[in-house]
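Predict the holo structure. Ligand: threonylcarbamoyladenylate.
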Amino acid sequence: MLTEIGSGREYIEKGARLIKAGEIVAFPTETVYGLGADAFNPQAVDKIFKAKGRPSDNPLIVHLCGFENLGAVVSCIPDIAEKLYRAFCPGPLTMVMKKSKAVPDVVTAGLSTVGVRFPSHPAAIELIKLSTAIAAPSANLSKHVSPTTARHVYEDLGGKIPLIIDGGSSQVGIESTIIDISGESPVILRPGTITLEMINSVCNAVNNSGEVKVAIAPGMKYLHYSPRCDCVIGDDIPSIIRMYQDSVAKGTKTVILAKEDTIKQLAGLNVWSLGSKGEDVARRLYALLREGEKAFGLIIVESLGDEGIFYSVMNRVNKAVKRDVK
Ligand code: TXA
Ligand code: MG
């Protein structure tokens, strides 16, 4: 199959036509690129799983525009949903709620809940407006690093999908925060750039006694976000230097991803900057992992601590370094 790549109104309209006809289309969001299908068409949604090689027990997020459209996909809208919507949507937040009968089981992997997100990228909003609710995971091959550019999508899915809508580089760069609000008290299932602190400042309701709950989302058990070369975390400067020198001595081409401030302490080594602030690092991480896997045998990522967005970035880095997750 020929995969077209294009930007602007013409390609968004083409994408909407394809989605309404039961095809799958890659599209930009502010977090990462998504691979979308009509959320109410089970055959179309099935094509997503096939194209990605995604296990069928890993549910998809439904992308909507406008709070008024939520009733089409969920059966019960808790009060907290409107508070979170007003504070953070459209934007990088996914809310898990009880699903309505209209959402096919293939979307939710048979769960009684559905994850719903209102993306803020203008091309995503237009695409949804011109088509329907869009079920979409990240537009990478299963287990690979999520794509933050149209080129990343093409590298994974070129020849397997008819269209990639190009909306530039994703501004957020890591996947949305997922919060489960279907039960008694809300639980964060996947950390993102909307942090626990931000959520708590709006509604003091997240169920955590000092610790954010993660790894409950069905997909979190899978190996994720992994570059196709070895990847390790360096806890401090001496251990980064030691790992680098050991690796180079063995003849392995090696690169270090480090914060801007750290780079001067790694003079003479091959280092790429992750930037300074949490937002910069989130925006750059996946592109650098994808770039690194092409040219290097080992990527050493500096440990970034657990403050704010760095916590969420390290959640992804920790998954990238794991080799033996079930
Ligand atoms: O930012 C994002 O969320 C991106 C863009 C494209 O919107 N999407 C994304 O989708 O990251 P995906 O499929 O790569 O990750 C979705 C995660 C998976 O870990 C899945 O298990 C979890 O969301 N999930 C989806 N529906 C769920 C549900 N009903 N209950 C619990 N977890 C759910
Ligand atoms: Mg994904």
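Residues 278-295 form the longest helix (18 residues). The chain is about 30% helix and 15% strand.
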